[in-house]
Amino acid sequence: MDKSDWIWMDGKFVPWAEANVHVLTHTLHYGLGTFEGIRCYKLVDGRSAIFRLPEHVRRLRDSAHILGIEIPFSQEELVEACLETLRRNRLDECYVRPLVYLGDGEMGLAATNAVRVAIAAWRWGAYLGDEGKQKGITAKISSFHRLHSNTLMSKAKTVGNYVNSILASQEARSGGFGEALMLDTEGFVAEGSGENLFVVRDGVVRTPGAHSILPGITRDTAMRLLRESGLDVREERVTRDDLYIADEIFLTGTAVEVTPVREVDRRRVGDGSPGPVTTRMQKRYDEVVRGGDPKHASWLSHL
Question: Does the annotation mark 42 as catalytic?
Answer without folding.
Answer: no
